Structures are given as C-alpha cells and as structure tokens.
Amino acid sequence: MAKILSQEEIDALLTSVSTGEEVSTEPLQLNKKISLYDFKHPNLISKEQMRFLENVHESVVRNFGVYLSAQLRMIVDIGLLAIDQIMYSEFVMSIAPPGAIYVGTIDSPYSNIVLEMNPQLTIFIVERMFGGKGNFINNVRPISVIEQRIVKRIIDRVAVEIEKSWAPVKEFNCIFDRFESNPEFVQIIPASEPVVVVSLEIKLHGATSLMNICYPYMWISNIISRPEVQNKIMFGTKSTTEQERTVIASNLDKTDVRLKAVLGKSRISIQEFLNLKTGDVLQLDTTVRDTIPVYTSQVHMYNAAIGESNKNYAIQISSVITREDNDEL
Q1: Multiple choice CATH, 47-251, 3.40.109.10, 2.60.40.720, 1.10.287.40, 3.40.1550.10
Q2: Peptide bond into 183 cis (omega under 30)
Q3: Which residues of the chain have pLDDT under 70?
C-alpha cells in the first residue's frame, strides 16, 4: 500500500540524496505546542475586559430584578448567564420569528443596540400587569400593538438601568424606540461585524426565560479603549477616601425610612367580609398591653408598645430584633 509523505519527509529525503545519509520514514515529531485559533471568530475582548463587562452588567441584573419583582408582584430571579462575542449574523439567526425585539440608540458615542426578549415572557408580563395569574403559552404568537405599549414601560426601565450601570465609565442616554418581530428587519450593523451579547436568565413562576442585550463591538471597543477605563480594568477602582465615606454616611442619615406598626390581625370569612358596613367592629388578636411588631421594608425590625404622645397615638420601641432572631434579615 502506497504511503503519502508529508512535506517535511520529502525535504528530508531530498537532503539525504545529496548527503548520502539514511532517513527514517517515521512521522516527524514536533516539540512545539500547537494552539488552535479560530480566524472566523477571533477573540477581540480580553479576559480582563470580559470581567469588566460582567461587573458593569451585574448592576443591571440586580436593579432590574428588583423592579420587575415589584411590577409583577412576585419573586423574580434574574442572573447574568453569559457574555459572548459573536458575529451579528449569528445573533440574528439565533432569534426565531415571531420575536420581541427592541432596537435602541445610544447617543454618546452614537450607536444602535438591540434588546431581544422571549415572546412568551412578554405575554406573561402583560398578563401579570393586568392582574392575571400569568402563564407561559406553548404556541408562540406575534406581540400585539397594545401588548407592545404595555411592555414598553418595562423596556424603558432596562434602558435606565443600562445608563446607570455604564455611568461610572461613560455617561450617555439610551432609549429603545423601535419594535420588530422579524429579526431580518433588524440590521443595525453589517452581518459580518462582531457584537457582544449579554444574556440574562430570568426565573419566575417555575419557568426560565432569556433576555439578550446586543452591543456592537465597535461601540464597546470605543469605550473600553479609553485610558481611564483601561486603568480601571487593569488596576480596579481606587479605594474610597474618608471624605467620600463622610458624604455617603451624611446622605444615608438624611434618608427617610418608612416604619409600619401592625396593631393586630383578625380572620373573617368571605361572607362576613362582604357584609361589612360602617360601624362594624373587628376584634384583633392583641390587647393594648401587648407588644406589636414594627416593620421596615417588609422586615420585622422592632417590637413596640402602644401609647400616646401629645394627644397623638404613638409607639415606644421596646426591643430590637437581631439578625439571629429574624430569618428575614
């Protein structure tokens, strides 16, 4: 059976003919370590820059999760799933029509960005905001104009959180002003240009959905290539000075905190509730001598006694709930 020689073996045979030396036909072993490089998908973002982008979007994840939980009146868990550098054509092909795609603009430096949301999640949000239980439909359908306008408030909040998260690095205005259901109509940059896609995983109502934020790589590069940003990436942010701590503490001291004292609770039937009228008296499960719980931000922080001060109803703090005593802390 004939054997195909490599170029190195051919060169070695030609050399042996001229020198008269015997050459082994065993394959040549290279001592150099070979690493694969994908010329179609070159790594344009370093590991340090990738960690910097993760830190920036952790703020988006945290603040938007709190906002969405309040709007939907349920627990919403949002996590940063991945940050990938891909071609724009690959991002577009990953979206199956009909989709829920919002095209936005950033003014400084000017660029377009794309926010893509699962249509099932969009319909779930609309149903919850109208007071329904919320269900993830099996058959994906296009988003109606009314549903687009309702979800627009949620999308606008994402734009606000993007502005806030990038503010320490670069201040700009972000707005999502166009909706598309067909990804083929979303052409913000050439298909062969690289983009950075930030994927958020949203868990709610026992289901998991995704939300993607797509930045053009040229815009990301314009931001992170600045000397002050590079300094933060390489050496981190500077430590807080004593003056900054004083300013922060002063602002916190002036912050208003709402306290809620629960005088007592009572349980009645639906029939009794429907028959309530002016002048009816409900008996609570506490007396005037009992201590009552005091809440702040739905967390039990103090116990207090009921009293009177300057002819006004008042409470007197009798004990402080410690972290060990309260699982909510």
Answers
A1: 3.40.1550.10
A2: no
A3: 1-5, 13, 16-42, 232-241, 323-329
The per-residue pLDDT for range 207-254, each reduced to its tens digit, is 888 999 999 999 988 888 877 777 766 655 556 667 778 878 887 887
Q: In sequence order, what are the residues at sequence separation of 6 or more whose Cβ sits closer than 8 angstroms to the Cβ of residue 300? A: 293, 294, 321, 326, 328
Amino acid found at 44: L
- The dihedrals phi and psi of 248, each to the nearest 5 degrees, come to -65, -45
Those residues whose C-beta lies under 8 Å from the C-beta of residue 191, and which sit 6 or more positions away, are 87, 88, 89, 92
pLDDT tens digit string along 67-112?
A: 998 888 888 899 999 999 999 999 999 998 888 999 999 988 899 9
Q: Is 54 exposed, middle or buried (0-12, 13-18, 19+ CB in 10 A)?
A: middle
Residue 183 to residue 95: CA distance in whole angstroms: 7
CATH among 2.30.330.10, 3.90.850.10, 2.60.40.1180, 2.30.130.10 for 260-320: 2.30.330.10
The alpha-helical segments, DSSP class H, found in the chain are: 7-19, 47-72, 88-93, 119-129, 145-166, 217-224, 227-235, 242-253, 270-274
Q: Report whether 205 contacts 136 (CB < 8 A).
A: yes
Whose CA is closest to 114, among 177, 166, 30? 177
- Which residues in the chain are classed under CATH 2.30.330.10? 260-320
Crossing angle between the packed helical segments 119-129 and 47-72, to the nearest 10 degrees = 30
For 178, list phi and psi in degrees, rounded to 5: -145, 140
Task: Give helix 145-166 / helix 47-72 axis angle, nearest 10°.
Answer: 130
pLDDT value for 21: 52
- Please, how many CA atoms are within 13 Å of residue 45, restricted to the half-sphere of its CB? 27
